[in-house]
Specification:
Layout: H1 3-6, H2 20-30, E1 34-38, E2 44-49, H3 50-71, H4 76-85, H5 90-93, E3 101-102, H6 107-117, E4 121-126, E5 129-135, H7 136-142, H8 147-159, E6 172-176, E7 179-188, H9 189-200, E8 207-216
Parallel strand pairs: 3-4, 7-8
Antiparallel strand pairs: 1-2, 4-5, 6-7
Length: 237
């Protein structure tokens, strides 16, 4: 599943010169925890989030000792926090550079980026321009796909790919609680690996329990079954 499949397209953005009070009012009115800051061309410059407002609010009591730090030079983090404390516009308060993701990247990539960078949302860009936003909630919603729909996607979007040259009806596909069980035969192990990777990339797949066999083992590496969610078997023909 691609980011474009789940992202919110009617994204709310502000310009760098937007007064910070207006940004706060927008976030409260829309019930959102962050808003992208974009220039006139749609390029994402940064994000103003609840965390930025928390730094500013905390700064009311911390500003005095930080002024001394500023006079002494301070570190990059200290200077950034001082700038947020004194900010009056979105451009001054935002966290930048923005952590973004392309619309055609996978939902798995979005989840990994949000986890690695410890952010709750990612502005989505297409050719450098803001086209939407994807949140952790969007990732969670992908996992409520019905098992029947997942089975259909496995057959129609993976097994039926012309590049694979397979007959989808020759495979048995069963999905239970988001876990895909796939049984069948392919000529090469490398193709089996590719098929399984594409199934895992389908939004809503919790795990894969493959029972595939092949004639030619053309893959170097650990024996099949070393991955906890791969229970692959090599069966004689």
């Amino acid at each position: 599943m691609k980011v474009a499949d789940v992202m919110t397209r009617s994204v709310v953005a502000v310009g760098p010169g937007t007064p910070l009070k207006d940004v706060a009012a927008l976030m409260v009115d829309r019930g959102i925890s962050g808003v992208p800051v974009a220039d006139a061309a749609g390029a994402v410059l940064g994000v103003v989030s609840e965390a930025d407002f928390l730094i500013k609010e905390r700064g009311a009591g911390a500003a005095r000792p930080r002024l001394l730090a500023r006079l002494l030079g301070g570190g990059r983090r200290t200077k950034a926090e001082i700038a947020k404390i004194e900010a009056t516009t979105a451009g001054e308060a935002m966290t930048s550079p923005a952590i973004t993701i392309d619309a055609d990247e996978t939902l798995q990539a979005a989840a990994e980026r949000m986890t690695d960078r410890r952010v709750n949302r990612l502005p989505v860009v297409d050719d450098g321009r803001l086209v939407g936003i994807v949140t952790r909630a969007d990732v969670v919603r992908a996992f409520v796909r019905p098992d029947a729909e997942l089975a259909r996607l496995v057959r129609e979007e993976v097994l039926a790919k012309a590049a694979f040259g397979l007959e989808p009806e020759a495979f048995a596909v069963a999905v239970r609680a988001g876990v895909v069980e796939l049984t069948g035969w392919v000529e090469r192990r490398s193709l089996a690996d590719t098929i399984l990777a594409e199934i895992r990339d389908l939004g809503g797949v919790v795990g894969v329990d493959p029972h595939l066999s092949w004639e030619i083992d053309d893959v170097e590496g650990p024996a099949p079954g070393s991955d906890p969610d791969v229970l692959m078997t090599l069966r004689p023909h």
